[in-house]
Amino acid sequence: GRPGVREVLFNVARAGIRFNPVLKIFDERQITENRRPGRVALTAVMRKTLVILNAMARDDQPWRYAAPS
Fold this sequence. Notes:
Strand content: under 5%
Distance between the termini: 31 Å
């Protein structure tokens, strides 16, 4: 992908893992249950973040926390 977009997503994903419980749990699950290396798990968080942002833009809705199941 484009380097600028990838860099921003990388930084957003790292911050999300630290401060967003949904992304933190997702990252931990990628590493423990799916046995992904840390960098691969981070890439999965980057993609999940992009999917969430795209859905928010598509639906014109703000972020809503939903407890992970």
